[in-house]
Amino acid sequence: MAKPLFDRVGDLLHRNRPWYKLPRLLAMPRLVEIRNDLREKNLHDTEEPPFEKQEIPADLSPHLREERTLDGTYNDLHYPRMGSAGCRFGRNVPLEHVAPHSATLLNPNPRVVSRELMTRDTFQPATILNLMAASWIQFMVHDWFVHKRSSLDDGMDIPVPAGDPWPAAAIRVPRTIPEPAPTGSSRPPAYVNVNSHWWDGSQIYGCDAAGAAKLRSGEGGKLTVEASKLLPLDPETGIERTGFTDNWWVGLAALHTLFTLEHNHICDLLHQQHADWNDNQIYGKARLINAALMAKIHTVEWTPAILPNPIIKTAMNANWNGLAGADLQEALEFLNDSELLGGIIGSKADHHAAPYSLTEEFVAVYRMHPLIPDELELRSAQTGQVLERHELPDLSGRKSRPILERVSMTDVFYSFGVAHPGAMTLHNYPKHLQNLHRENGEHLDLAAIDILRDRERGVPRYNQFRQLLRKEPVKSFEELTDNAEWREQIRKVYNNDLEMVDLMTGLYAEPLPEGFGFSETAFRIFVLMASRRLKSDRFFTDDYRPEIYTELGLSYIRQNGMATVLRRHLPELAAALQGVENPFAPWRAVGG
Fold first, then answer.
1. Is residue 558 within 8 Å of 571, Cβ to Cβ?
2. Per-residue pLDDT band at 11 (split at 50, 70, 90)
3. 421, 422, 420, 416: which is closest to 379 by C-alpha?
4. Catalytic pick from 44, 101, 142, 147?
5. How confident is the model at residue 28 (pLDDT cuts 50, 70, 90)?
6. How many angstroms separate the CA atoms of 439 and 372, rounded?
7. pTM higher than 0.85, yes or no?
């Protein structure tokens, strides 16, 4: 009865008053109502032909029944390919609204949007967060999605006129490669995800057997770690060996190393209880537990840190533990029949209106590059003194490893814990990413590319995006932003055409409700997809049980979070973490 009751209460609320301005007890049912409406109307399948239901073979391998596969197959045993690597991104808006913006692909010029609206003149910090929150979301995104791109050598690039001092007349941007459509298809282009769509830790473990095998020690289920507790270095790339290394920098290296060490710790615990298990058995269970722990950290720690609104904190804890709370949920197992009371974790799996996939709109709202600063001070975790200062390019790619060999992992994490990321606003895009030199020779303006990608992939522009989520469109530039200077800049860049304002521009310009680190419009996709990644996944729902995870595994996930992981592997951080409620919020500064 809980869910219909929440819907009925939601129906009684005043529709013209935003949910985040309601008292918490009234805001929750309104938010649930919004999510249920989005589940019904904003999940659209792009697979051609659609997946066909299959009977589960009686002799299906226990490995496929009880462990995550590397490529994401067999998560749904009736639809083995659903959500696996190489499957298409779905959509959160109807397919008739997702055609590429071919006629207006360069209107206005993405480079002009970047220069005039995104350029960081003065660093605007997000003081509610520490810098680890920025590296964490990149760490997560690398688990979730990556598109296929063309090569600059194949002549399929999109030339974006530079229009200002630049070594060439145009910035050559590799195209996103669409998935071939069946003969006679009338659907707009769709694109595949190279990664598994599931929340499965693929950034650490990889998505294919050959790549994953290179990361394993072959003993006790563990991943290979050097005696220094750093990841092995790939001599060809000069970058650590792990599941995913694109856009590598010190922030990613630290988190990849930390959760590789966490995997190996879980392996030790499993071996103590199951001495008869072989290398593969321990590896599979440890991977399952580690992936769930990362999902929990993101749900109940990272999200309330960047959205420190009390309603959202309650909602995200409800996603994981339910409104009844973790302790009561454990005591009253019947609550798992109710997603709201018992939480999504351990409830019944449900794909709602479409087969599970991540979506192009989900990719679009996670464009959070303003979180990245342009420079970083590395400090001592014992004294607080500055050890080194670096521009971000000097912390990236193959330049990151020498720093980790000079500066301890403890000092690196402390440095991130006491530094702030950037705020998610206009005029706060990292300058080095607008002038990005990649080691493959590409020279790019990433802000311009972010704008271009949404147009190329048919993501609606800001006002249409709002309407398709059943939000009122903004009716003027004054309504779009409360910053008078930005208002005139946007008006000029978009030639006074409100309907042409790009999604990313609108999301960064939009006034934020109290306790929001990013826009409420983006949050609409988040509130739908954050729960969907859990609700569709049988390893978070039907198979979140001791027979699959072991009693040790479920207890481990329940009792651990980001702070315990940090203290376990880097005990010298205890002083900086003392009294810190959320490890993604600023830490205590040490020393004088």
1. no
2. low
3. 416
4. 142
5. confident
6. 20
7. yes
For residue 10, is it within any domain?
no
pLDDT at residue 337, rounded to an integer: 47
Q: Determine which of 103-117, 278-292, 302-316 has the lowest per-residue pLDDT on average.
A: 302-316
Asked whether residue 8 carries a pLDDT value surpassing 70, the answer given is: no
Q: Is 369 a catalytic residue?
A: no
Specify if 429 maps to a domain. Answer: yes
Give the CA angle between residues 31, 35, 38 to the nearest 5°.
140
395 in any annotated domain:
yes
The number of domains in the chain is 1
DSSP sequence for 532-576? HHHHT-TTTTTT-SHHHH-HHHHHHHHH--HHHHHHHH-GGGHHH
Residue range 220-240: mean pLDDT, rounded: 95
Specify the CATH number for the domain of residue 160: 1.10.640.10
Q: Would 32 be classed as within a structural domain? A: no
Given a contact cutoff of 8 angstroms between Cβ atoms, the answer to whether 505 and 481 are in contact is no
d(CA 274, CA 97) in angstroms, rounded, equals 53
CA–CA separation, 528 and 469 (whole Å): 11
108 preceded by cis ω (within 30°)? yes
The per-residue pLDDT of the chain, averaged, comes to 93
Long-range contacts of 272-279 (CB under 8 A, 24+ apart): 273/550, 273/552, 274/550, 277/221, 279/216, 279/218, 279/219, 279/220, 279/221
Q: What percent of the chain has a predicted confidence (pLDDT) above 90?
A: 85
What's the domain range around 441? Answer: 42-577
ω into 49 cis (within 30 of 0): yes
Structure tokens at 422: 């950037």
